[in-house]
Queue: 2 jobs
Job 1
Amino acid sequence: MADNPMLKFVIRGQSYPDKRAVTERARDFSEISHGFATSGAEDQAARCSQCGVPYCSVHCPLHNHIPDWLKLTAEGRLREAYELSNMTSTMPEICGRICPQDRLCEGNCVIEFSGHGAVTIGSVEKFITDTAWKEGWVEPVLVGEATGLSVGVIGAGPGGLTTAEYLRAAGHEVHVYDRYDRAGGLLTYGIPGFKLEKDVVMRRVKRLEEAGIQFHLGFEVGRDASLADLREKHDAILIATGVYKARDMKMPGVGTQGVVKALDFLTASNKASFGDDVPEHEDGSLLATGKDVVVIGGGDTAMDCVRTSIRQGAKSVRCLYRRDRENMPGSQREVQNAEEEGVEFIWLTAPIAFEGTEHVTGVKITRMRLGQPDASGRRAPEPDPGSEASIPADLVIKALGFDPEELPTMFGEPSLAVTRWGTLRVDHRNMMTSIDGVFAAGDIVRGASLVVWAIRDGRDVADHIQAYLQAKTPAKQRVAA
């Protein structure tokens, strides 16, 4: 009997691809590790216990067939592993890079519970599809017979691109509208290159363009066309805009020059990485070089801002978060990476004012303590009286999260119903909004969330749109097809 290639977790320890030296990686925007070699990926995949109830798959929003493609990888059957991975995800190599695996698949790995350290699933997932691109296994989108029906997708982020791919494969004409000059949404302009190099996103976009999906970039619904205009042009519409309205704070000095929004800062940096002219870098307003930088927030966007500031050559970088390390929403791996690169975290601390007249010079802060749990179940932070102090700052970046924009007003469509949080109201049985034939998916429905959830929603809504279009298609046309 051949030796079982799996169940090696007892004799092989957990390992991740080696990171580049801090002194090297903190000077550029390339990814901080180069990924597994084939032997490393096979060794880690072979640690999988092939458990009867794969909690890794259960806790993956896409329900990827993780144990199956780990087994194929361990057996050296990489092309089959890629094909299986690609069955459930339109962007496996992107999820492998940016998913918080420590909270999802790896955090729920059975051998993690047994004390042996989780299989490094994300790194193996990245390796599989990067290898597929390198070897030419990633095939063009197989476009079905033309249906004569047209779909408009508003938003070229992960959710919109996923739906566009599935509906194009079904034979529909697909048009994607996005306000930015490049497709990808936050994958392109919100996430720094050291987590997700931009050619990884652009090759996905190119594949969709080659499939005949038509992109209308620099296009704003409400400015270049109303929602009603697009409804007249298309048989169905998907709204997948994401949530881009930065949450703000009310305190003295918040409007002082040098106090900026996280997405403005990250977008400017990513545009510069593309080689674009960035006026805000030329005048220094969104550039950290030589400055004392303070980032406010504890999520992944805050981690992106502190690590970008390091790479731009900041004099110092501090991150203020009102709770402690254990209660922060961001990835603990990102905190570790940031600390290695020289970021100082000041836990249990909140700003109460921004100092300076013409330009910010400092942040007045107060210490916090954790009280009773709030509605989210986390202990609510409370100010600690008498603990006020000041820290210097030439640039303050607010990374407090995102809320929905006022889409009914922006789109010129007051009948578009929203929830009390401003997200689009949908019938969750079919993901349709209050307007017939207009669907919505991703963060604009669920609120700010993960890329993997946007992909899941994009996959689900594609099925609902397909059912809607089939119901509209005359019976004789369906028979002919």
Note: The longest strand covers residues 362-373.
Job 2
Amino acid sequence: MNPVSEVTKIRRDIFTRIARWALNQPLDGPFEMDISALVKEIIPDGPARYRCCIHKERAIVEEQIKIAVGLTPLNNPVTVIPDACNRCSLTKYLVTDVCQNCVAHPCRNSCPKKAISVIQNRAFIDQTSCAECGKCAKACPYNAIIEITRPCERACAIGAIKVDESRKAVIDNSLCVSCGLCVTVCPFGAITDLSQILDVICSLRIKEQPHVAIVAPAIAGQFGPKVTPEQIKTGLLQLGFDEMVEAALGADIVAKEEAHEIMEHVGQKNVMTNSCCPAFANAVAVKMPELKDIISTTLSPMRVTGQLVKDKYANKVTTVFIGPCIAKKAEATRGDEIDLVLTFEELAAIFSASEIDLSSLAPTEVKDASPNGRLFARAGGVSAAVRKHINSDMDLEILQVQGLGQCLSALKTAAKKVNGAGLTFIEGMACEGGCVGGPGTIVTIAAGTRAVEKHAGESIILPK
């Protein structure tokens, strides 16, 4: 399992308590949560454990609960809780002991604000005058001036996270692609995402129509090395779902469709990217809008599978996608294939609140997808599946890139390629390791990758 920080423990505790409350409320009575009582359960009386006082701890948890149950309206799946932000008052540029007090003083000469002086044979930056332009760090021949970046800013390759005049983090919703990486790195739990855990439980309990869980292939191994996808399916059926379908089924279709797109565009385009990672696709549209037409027009495996399920039930069904990705919460709103979205972490909270021990359950057969579709969950899986549908003699270059910054850089370089007979296919994934490294996962990337490969090897479905 991933190392669990105090921030993660609190978040999971909140999810579990919300789920337990929702599962035990009478459906014929008032459905109103006593948030103050729930807050006191999570933060009991006594000395403060993490903040300046217990009152602030409770205020932050109260806001986390409100966001989790939808009482705080959000314009974006990812948001900053102002009271929780530590206002990291960091010195942006810092002179280290490596400073040689050289005669040329390029750092001082490059500073447009004249904020650098030499004190006791060492460069000194006056932080009250510093404009944080970074010219001094670039000019220093010894790399003696280092840049210190806040964790949330460093995690956001899109530059959607800024710091306001009070030094609190704010998210520019016009730039945010909902990758959720900032959620995972904030040491204070100040950044969180919209949860539909309450909506899913209520929908399952009211049960106005059938419910189908569409699970991402990265689910393999998420609940421990001894819990199989077949046992997870049994657990989902016990929660009230009528069926579980692998999103890898849609991945098989996507691989074939994207291969066709590549063959159609050879000679017309020099680059094409996958469409399965919504954060990557959104990043291209936001940062490089002139290149957005090179993104595959094929819907993602989530939406393709959702449409298959909707067609099967003549649209009289509630589809719930369960995966590792926060960006899928935003993607689901762009069509009517998926009604609700949960992360693996949120599903674990529901299982815990329901007192379902997955390891003790009998397996229920899972056989929707081929090995190719299941391998979409790890880096290289998409391009490998696409390549199998393309003629081996075709001039096709494949790049596998993870991390939004690296993805955009690779795309920029590849776009300069002159049109010709060949084509470059970029498999871009916002998360390191692919979907197995998503912000909603429970286990390490290495453990998730091994489990996905094992699950793929157990498929009895032949690629079409």
Note: Residues 93-147 form a domain with the Alpha-Beta Plaits fold (CATH 3.30.70.20).
